[in-house]
Amino acid sequence: MVKLTAIQLCSVPDVGENFRTIDRYLETLVTDSSQDDEHIVVLPECCLFFGGKDQQQLGLAKESDQLAYQNLFVSTLQEQLSRLAKRYHVYLVAGSIPLLSTIADKFTNTCCVFSPEGELLTQYDKIHLFDVDVQDSEKQYRESRYTQSGNEIVSATAAGLNVGLSICYDLRFPELYRSLTALGADIITVPSAFTAVTGKAHWQALLQARAIENQVYIIAAGQQGEHENGRETWGHSMIISPWGEILACLEEGEGSISVEFSQQALDKVRKAIPVAEHNQFESTLKLQN
């Protein structure tokens, strides 16, 4: 059996505290699971640092990069996440963390995927950056100020399944999801930190649409609550079936939701309505870097 889990957090601008919280939820998940289960666990966007300033994330990326350069791997963000995946023997889709980019004074918002042995299987840099005006306490978001956008569509093999990777604002761009499905995705993960305003309006509708259009499982793990800088995130972490059914949802607070992956259910939907065969369009990534 393959178990699918989304962990919902209210992350703080303190890496150590966030690691302790994630560790606690992973320990609970493993205790509640059969030893024979394979387990894919998804963390939210900015899982290790949230509620501070983007400039602080850049500083965190620089610090981690310097430690890696000095071969102090035990202290890097990636190494610590690797150790969690290995300790609890799970496939860990580690939401997103800031990694120093090749552009001066910018970081990538990167989702790292680790095997149960702690191996870094792949990583995805968020393609679509959140440069928008929202009627909330922040009023204006300009993610591109310190973040370098990605330029590659990425999937990974986990527990014998093809897992497509996306992050938060990517959800509004169906072409990415169609491209991931063309690469063979059975599951698409959506680690997020949706604002409370946009989340209330669009989160569930977009998630269900992406699941239905592409006939995939969607695992959407969100940030939820009021963070230290006053930003409010929507939460409502969900796992959605290839038919668009909400199989599990955690509306508020920290915690986790889990369901069992069903190959039979996936195959049934795709056989009944063979969307992939009928599709007459091709999507390409427009490189902007």
Describe the structure.
With 289 residues, the chain is α/β, with parallel strands linked by helices. Helix content is 30%, strand content 27%. It has one domain: Nitrilase/N-carbamoyl-D-aminoacid amidohydrolase. Strand 10, helix 5 (196-214) and strand 11 (217-220) form a beta-alpha-beta unit. Helix 1 (15-32) runs parallel beside helix 3. 44% of the residues are buried.
Question: What is the compact description of this entry?
Answer:
This protein has 289 residues and is an alpha/beta fold. The protein contains seven helices and 16 strands.
Strands, helices and their partners?
Elements lengths: L1 E7 L6 H18 L5 E5 L11 H16 L7 H12 L2 E10 L6 E8 L5 E6 L5 E3 L6 E3 L12 E4 L2 E5 L8 H9 L4 E3 L6 H19 L2 E4 L3 E3 L5 E3 L2 E4 L5 E5 L4 E6 L2 H10 L2 H4 L11
Parallel strand pairs: 1-2, 2-3, 9-10, 10-11
Antiparallel strand pairs: 1-16, 3-4, 4-5, 6-7, 8-9, 11-14, 12-13, 14-15
